[in-house]
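User: Is it possible to get a 3D structure for a protein together with its bound compound? The compound here is NDP. I've pasted both below.
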Amino acid sequence: MAKRIQFSATGGPEVLQYVDFTPVEPAVDEVQVENKAIGINFIDTYVRSGLYAPATFPSGLGTEAAGIVRKVGAGVSAVKPGDRVVYAQSALGAYSEIHNVPLEKLAILPDNLSFEQGAASFLKGLTVHYLLRQTYEIKPGEIFLFHAAAGGVGLIACQWAKALGAKLIGSVGSDEKAELAKRAGAWATINYHKEDIAQRVAELTNGEKVSVVYDSVGKSTWQDSLNSLKRRGLMVSFGNASGPVIGVDLALLNQKGSLYVTRPSLYGYITNRQELQSASNELFSLLGSGAIKIEVKEEQKFALADAQKAHQVLESRKTSGSSLLIPGL
Ligand code: NDP
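Assistant: Yes, that's possible. Here is the predicted structure of the complex:
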């Protein structure tokens, strides 16, 4: 027997249950991983609340973790029991002591990264990789806007932007978070509770505004994001922390300067093992060189049994950087 988090109806954090289950043998292309650190992602709250409801109940939750290979399926030769690995996938169930994962969703965890660093940086780092390197290729010296810059994805984005020689303007919800984003490499910050985002972007760019905005906040920043873009700029809407953007009048894009909008997902960029390897090699190289540092605050490491509390804290906007569930904590 092992422990996992499951839920049988969507709702608040209270729907999450810590239960016993019997792990099944890995399928032919799967790897059975004993999770040592599990990444908490804001997307987990969308799944739990019903914004992205699971297809069947009871359902597991969570999409990334780092741990040790226990068993492999008959068709797997690229990893073996005892290997240290990290994985990210859209299928749910990583909030668990033991989890079976398709080989193509998993990478060998470099020796210089702890399980905690791996689980705190893999899904979020791969996300920053596709956003800054593929959805729109950020160039050295380029000024751009990135919302929620002190969050898990955000602090990695600040550091990655600095490594690229680019100038990230980070929006944040408090002065303390502004300081954290600055320390991580943000060129400038905007506290969106105090300042007008589009006005500040215009000031910071001498009226030019930016070619790309990365917006994971959604509903509450949508208009400001569009207003921060220069003519034919690109709006990258990649999350809904404040609620989804719905009912968009496309004429708005014309009125605001022939803008482009995309709504990407990590799993549209990581579709096979080759794409995963290529993106994770770039991420691991920046982590290995120290260009990107991952530190998880002690108060943001939760026991697996405390997933309810972890979700409450994440949704209350009290966290900065990544948060983890640690089996056995
Ligand atoms: P974060 O650690 O960034 O937490 C979310 C942050 O959003 C909060 O800390 C808060 O920062 C900000 N926020 C703004 N408005 C609200 C609100 N009304 N309620 C709660 N938080 C709010 O989470 P992650 O790093 O896990 O993810 C960041 C975003 O990226 C999420 O929206 C997620 O869905 C998205 N994402 C998208 C992916 C994709 O491929 N499309 C992949 C991975 C993540 P502050 O206090 O500074 O406002």
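The chain has nine helices and 16 strands. The chain has two domains: 2-122+273-326, 140-264.
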